[in-house]
Amino acid sequence: MRLAPAFLCFSLIFSAAPAADPAPSSPTDTYIYARDRALSAVKADPAAEDRALPELERLIKLAVPGWHASGFTPEGTYTVVALDEGDVGFGAVDGLQYARGDTVVTVTTKPLLTRWLAGHRNWWKDEKNIPASMTAAFRSEAFYTQALSTDAAAYLHGLVLVKAPPGAELAVVELAAFAQDLVLDRGPDRLLVVVMRGDRIFIAEEKLKTPLAPVLFCKRTLDLTLAHAKAEKNTDKSDALEVKADREYRDCFGVRLREQPNYTAVQKQAQALVDRLH
């Protein structure tokens, strides 16, 4: 079976741009400069990670405005938990994370995310990377895999239609599942939400409260392609057919999403989460 892209070899370059000026002019520049120095130090001495992370957390809190919402942890935690490229969590988006039950909200800023996207342009050597456009990135599996879950891949199942709240430039909601292998017809189990409001960007993940049934029309094609894959003696061709079956099923699922009896309940949950991100 095909391994999730998160396990593939990725670029050793964390930032496409050179290190910030030695005399940074903003909290964002100060953080980027310190982060890049820490990454270099950890390459030479892995023990430097424990010394660097607390200082980077202090600096990120100066670069990212705090966020407060009822029921969520009052203080954000640093999203970057690993500075060694061989460790799970390396390369996560720079920001602060807040949690409440099955909901996790990551808060970052446009300048930080712009730098992060530039650094991830060629993150994977043999897989499709994140689009250069920020709005296109929010609709890509590579973005959510690299930003939120470096030990499993994001598999998108279609857009949920929501209204951007007052003051927000953009609101995107994707149905998704994270897995270390193909999800096929197991379906989505969470919402992935991005809201861009002013200089802040919210990336939220929440467990889906209302299950969505497999789409029988789509499953017929899936089963047919999987049968061909099973009969194929060439392993590479068999794996390629399985990947094709998975992709086609999820594309079909997304097209027919609004026909699902529970779609309205899913849409209501998504809109409530979007409205909370301000």
Plain-language structure description:
With 278 residues, the chain is of the alpha+beta class. The protein has helices at residues 27-44, 48-63, 110-119, 134-137, 141-148, 216-231, 235-255, 263-276, and strands at 77-78, 96-100, 103-109, 153-159, 170-179, 190-197, 200-207. The chain has a 7-stranded antiparallel sheet, sandwiched between helices. A hairpin with a 2-residue loop joins strand 6 and strand 7 (200-207). Helix 1 (27-44) packs antiparallel against helix 2 (48-63) and helix 6 (216-231) packs antiparallel against helix 7. The longest helix has 21 residues, at 235-255.
Oligomeric state of the chains present here: single chain
| Gyration radius, rounded | 20 Å
Helical content class: 25-40%
Structural class: alpha+beta
Strand content of the residues, in percent?
15-25%
What is the number of helices?
8
Distance between the termini: 41 Å
Strand elements, count? 7
Biggest sheet character: 7 strands, antiparallel
- Tertiary shape: globular
Order of helices and strands: HHEEEHHHEEEEHHH
Trace the largest sheet across and list its strands.
Answer: 1-2-3-7-6-5-4
**Spans where pLDDT lies below 50 across 5 or more residues:** 1-22
Q: What is the count of structural domains? A: 2
**Overall mean pLDDT score?**
91
